[in-house]
Write the structure tokens for this entry.
Amino acid sequence: MVKVLLVGDASRENAIADALARSTKEPRLYAVMKLRNPGIARLCEQTGGEFYLGNFTDPKVVVDAASRYSVDLVFIGPEEPLFRGVADALTEAGFPCVGALKAAAEVEMSKAFMRRLMWKYNIPGRLRFKAFKNVEDAIAYIAAYAESIALKPARQAGGKGVKVIADLQVYLSKEKQEVKSKHAQVIHEKHMAEYTDIEDRILIEERVEGPEYTLQTFTDGRTVRPLPLVQDNKNAFEMDIGPETGGMGSIAGPGLTLPFITEDEFERSVEIVRRVVEAIWKETGISIRALSQGK
């Protein structure tokens, strides 16, 4: 009997739990959750496993749960445990783990690290950008340049805080500058307030046009296996307007692509992820063995 410990309690982890429960290997499912997800709890019960309520971003809590249940594999769903070193602690304790080590997970935690990595290793999809360690420098930059930009928290912040501002009308430059400066302040005071594990605070990058989509892949640090493309419903209102929500459902199909993506574009997207995986190894000396994600 294979015993699997799932880390996380959101809808993504519910989907992972469902897929694990349907495996022909008939695994016994265990879970560490902050809050009781009824779907995950039901699947744990149906497979003969259990769930444990605790802080799954704490490496000690997760290692203790893995030890308590003597699991054969740990599957980490959310990103935040990776940033806090949960995969490192599990690996050190001898538990096989689906989830990147902390040094490799920086490519997801820090948008600035990711942008610098892409420029250093000449990876397609590079954007002009500047990262700022304090809000005053970001506002000074905004005051000096009238540009169409994307303003983002420099750290992964649950998909929130991103604002894209088109600065095309000269007669509105002053008003657009005020909007940009105010949002930089919002990023600093609201979206980055709780994070002290990264020096960069605000990322400003060039605005680009086109639909956004996500490619997720499984990788062992060398081979990259793509999953079907998906597109998130990120904005709160219809017609892709309103504040970023962090994702409220998604669409997929047909097949591996989306209606607006060609096979060639899909293959190019997979190649970008391959290049990033390779660059992480060159930069950190660590193979990223995880579910990798590129946008």
Observations:
- Residues 210-294 form a domain with the D-amino Acid Aminotransferase; Chain A, domain 1 fold (CATH 3.30.470.20).
